[in-house]
Amino acid sequence: MRESVQAEVLMSFLVSEELSFRIPVELHYEMGDPYAVRMTFHLPGDAPVTWTFGRELLLDGINTPSGDGDVRIAPTVPEDLSDVHIRLQVGDDRALFRVSAAPLVAFLDRTDRLVPLGQERTLGDFEGSLEEALGRILAEENAG
């Protein structure tokens, strides 16, 4: 049985209104972490950067502005399922990406076939996995 879904999409990295360039971005979803989607951005000259956020945030952001923290996702034109803006922020640093909604919808459809939305809790010891993940995060923060 397949336990993950992967896809690669091209996104436009919007540096300014005048400058943008296309970069490959890997999308990854695993049954072992059923609420999360990972996006790995491959910027020229830099090491790949991976962001993890909620699958529902990505799904909601395709149709309506979503997110109020470090990750914000919104359709570029409300009421139009064409392109999506993904804004990532760390402190004062921000990065804005534009991507067609179609490959995101296709990816999310594949994740839904693997783990239907609303069925994430049925995958076993979610509470134990959450405690383990939080322990790793806290250990990394204390080490750094």
Mean pLDDT: 88
- Cα(first) to Cα(last) distance is 38 Å
User: Strand percentage, roughly?
Assistant: 35-45%
Question: Helical content, roughly?
Answer: 25-40%
> If strands are numbered along the chain, what order do they take across the biggest sheet?
4-3-2-1-7-6-5
Quaternary organization = single chain
What's the shape? globular
Catalogue the unreliable spans: none
SSE succession:
EEEEHEEEHH
Helix/strand-derived class?
alpha+beta
Radius of gyration: 16 Å
What summary fits the major beta sheet? 7 strands, antiparallel
Give an overview of the whole structure:
It is a single chain. This protein has 144 residues and is α+β, with helices and mostly antiparallel strands. The chain is built from three helices and seven strands; from the N terminus they run ββββαβββαα. It has helices at residues 55-63, 101-114, 126-143, and strands spanning 4-14, 20-30, 36-41, 49-54, 71-75, 83-90, 93-100. Strands 4-3-2-1-7-6-5 form a seven-stranded antiparallel β-sheet, with helices on both faces. A hairpin with a 7-residue loop joins β3 and β4. The longest helix has 18 residues, at 126-143. It is globular. It starts with a strand and ends with a helix. The mean pLDDT is 88.
